[in-house]
Write a structure and sequence with these properties.
Low-confidence stretches: none
Radius of gyration: 19 Å
Mean pLDDT: 95
Helix content: 25-40%
CATH topology of the largest domain: Rossmann fold
CATH architecture of the largest domain: 3-Layer(aba) Sandwich
Oligomer: single chain
Strand order of the largest sheet: 2-1-3-4-5-11
Order of helices and strands: EHEHEHEHEHEHEEEEHE
CATH class of the largest domain: Alpha Beta
Largest sheet: 6 strands, parallel
Length: 248
């Protein structure tokens, strides 16, 4: 049995993960960790009283980096679903995991449909010189742009150096109107609004045509198969993995 702890257990995603773990015959929910509600308040406290094989983190952008450093330095395998980590922070976590021989699995998105959307965008990027990303989330999401949109832009940027071919020199009369400029000049637009859960649209354009690749999440249960797969993988493979696409 894989002994799983969930950090952020009383949040919306955390509750779904706890339920999914309890429903999986190969796992047991060893600890619920959250600063609010029942369960342990800190990872350190949970470790004192529980044996933990894998810790799943769905907390907040401001806490995930410190949580991850603590776990990896103390030999706790991690599955990280919290977004907001910077590139240099991810690189440092990879170094710790590699040095300590501890499993660390970071995924910007655990939905198989979202992973396919990213892969399709990566394929299309070879054939279009212009592209932008629009990502839509509920208005309680604290980080922008989303981890999914950043990962998508990274994959697309592997195809070419710029996606602004033929664009005129632009002037923003309202700062930020064109969104944020990411890898290879890909503009990312972040929408935060009640009614959305998590959606992303990748737009490609060329003379006389456009291509739109879109994925919509309407229920958090769509992430659970990916989370469970990551838990099982990281328990067996003491390595660093970034992105669910690497094990599908």
């Amino acid at each position: 049995m894989i002994k799983v702890a969930v950090c952020g257990a009383n949040g919306k995603m955390g509750k779904e993960v706890c339920q999914a773990v309890e429903n999986d015959s190969s796992m047991t929910l060893a600890a619920k960790i959250d600063i609010q509600g029942d369960g342990y308040r800190t990872i350190e406290e949970a470790q004192r009283y529980c044996e933990i094989d894998v810790l799943v983190d769905f907390t907040q952008p401001q806490s995930i980096y410190e949580n991850a450093k603590y776990c990896l330095r103390n030999g706790v395998n991690m599955v990280i679903g919290t977004t907001g980590l910077k590139d240099e922070e991810i690189a440092f976590l990879k170094k710790i995991a590699t040095d300590m021989k501890v499993g660390c699995f970071i995924a910007p998105n655990f939905s198989t449909g979202a992973v396919l959307m990213m892969k399709f965008a990566q394929m299309a990027a070879k054939y279009f010189d212009n592209a932008e990303i629009i990502e839509y989330h509920h208005n309680q999401k604290k980080d922008a742009p989303s981890g999914t949109s950043i990962k998508t832009a990274q994959l697309m940027a592997e195809a070419k150096e710029t996606f602004k071919s033929g664009n005129c020199e632009e002037t923003e009369t309202i700062q930020g109107a064109r969104g944020g400029t990411s890898y290879s000049g890909i503009q990312i637009h972040s929408v935060r609004m009640p009614g959305f859960m998590a959606s992303q649209e990748v737009l490609f354009g060329s003379q006389g045509q456009t291509l739109s690749i879109r994925h919509d999440s309407t229920d958090r249960k769509c992430y659970m198969d990916g989370v469970l797969l990551a838990i099982k993988y990281v328990r067996e493979h003491k390595e660093f993995v970034y992105g669910l696409d690497n094990i599908l």
